[in-house]
Design a protein that fits this description.
Blueprint: E1 10-19, E2 22-27, E3 30-35, E4 41-46, E5 54-63, E6 65-66, E7 72-73, E8 79-88, E9 95-103, E10 109-110, E11 113-114, H1 119-124, E12 133-138, E13 141-144, E14 150-159, E15 165-173, H2 196-219, H3 223-240, H4 247-260, E16 265-268, E17 276-280, E18 287-291, E19 301-304, E20 310-312, E21 317-320, E22 323-326
Antiparallel strand pairs: 1-4, 1-8, 2-3, 2-5, 5-15, 6-7, 8-9, 10-11, 12-13, 12-14, 14-15, 16-19, 17-18, 19-20, 21-22
Helix pairs in contact: 2-3, 3-4
Length: about 325
């Protein structure tokens, strides 16, 4: 039997466990999870639709959370574990490509805050993580090779954009899908780089050009309009997860119309943008509107009848030559 080298249809995921840590997890600058509280959690995320063939970046942006002293900071009992995994799309045999292990007990704490000038202490928080290496995967086994398709890079640790610890690792990964469009989208400025007038204008433009058409299609239960709006996104997700052409957007239309016609839900909530902010991904490519302090929340939602809960529809947008498109 011929040995199987690497993967024909790689299915990449991130397994993530944490406790007593606030964080934002990003792949190539795209935020895929956010925890501002630091509760114990364990999740797994598919990430093919955030990756590109070649060099990729995984960032853990720590968020300062409430310490026992009533101040914001990093906790010395905070810990997390991240595993980058891959399997063949039609297989259950999983290979762990790299592991990031963070241990807050290694921090140099100065007046209840991490000392970001002490790089040795920052690096010691991840000293048990995977070290730089290069390899192939043959019959689901990691085989070291100077010419291997997988390259696990070194870590960088520093005080990051979130004013807390940032852990960054670059990884070279083979992938058969094309470069996703959002990588070549227009650059978008962060909220803090906009004047108040520019921020208000940006938010209004997104309301008019992006959210209102989606809201109207949902309100009207217009299957064709929903299909047209999500067509580009669906095409890329078909490619990312090896689906038949048109399958993802078909599933999206069925899912959304199921929500629209659910007797336990009210009609799509009226758009209320008085208490929302413009979010921009760390790569300056993706944007969306969210409720204050809930950076991954969506402004498109249905209320449940008889219960104080809601069903939200997450969407992210990119701009190409000044025109907004749904990309995720």
């Amino acid at each position: 039997m011929t040995a199987k080298k690497n993967y024909q249809q790689p299915f990449y995921t991130i397994r993530f466990k944490s406790q007593h840590c606030g964080y934002r997890l990003a792949v190539n600058g795209c935020v895929i999870e956010d925890d501002r509280i630091g509760e114990q959690s364990a999740m797994e995320y598919p990430i093919n639709h955030w990756l590109k063939s070649g060099e990729n970046t995984i960032d853990i942006y720590h968020l300062n959370i409430n310490t026992p002293f009533g101040k914001k900071g990093l906790l010395t009992d905070g810990c997390l574990n991240l595993e980058l995994c891959v399997r063949e799309n039609d297989s259950h045999e999983v290979t762990v490509l790299s592991t990031t292990e963070y241990n807050g007990a290694k921090l140099n704490i100065d007046e209840n805050r991490a000392n970001y000038d002490d790089i040795d202490a920052l690096r010691s928080t991840i000293e048990t993580s995977t070290q730089p290496t290069q390899f192939d995967v043959i019959d689901d086994q990691v085989i070291l090779s100077d010419q291997g398709a997988f390259i696990i890079g070194d870590y960088q640790v520093k005080k990051g954009i979130t004013k807390a610890l940032q852990i960054t690792q670059k990884l070279t990964l083979p992938a058969p899908f094309p470069l996703w469009r959002f990588f070549e989208a227009d650059d978008l400025p962060y909220h803090n780089d906009l004047s108040d007038d520019e921020w208000k204008a940006t938010r209004q433009m997104m309301i008019d050009e992006v959210y209102q058409p989606i809201w109207q299609a949902l309100h009207d239960d217009d299957a064709q309009a929903i299909k047209d709006l999500f067509a580009g996104r669906g095409k890329e997700l078909d490619q990312a997860f090896y689906k038949k052409n048109g399958q993802d957007v078909y599933e999206m239309v069925v899912h959304l119309r199921g929500i629209i016609n659910d007797d336990d839900l009210s009609s799509v909530r009226e758009l209320d943008f008085d208490y929302c902010d413009v979010a921009v991904a760390f790569n300056h490519k993706l944007s969306w509107l969210h409720n204050w302090k809930l950076s991954l929340s969506s402004k498109l939602a249905f209320d449940h009848l008889g219960a104080d809960i809601e069903t939200r529809i997450p969407v992210m947008f990119a701009r190409f030559d000044g025109k907004w498109e749904i990309v995720r």
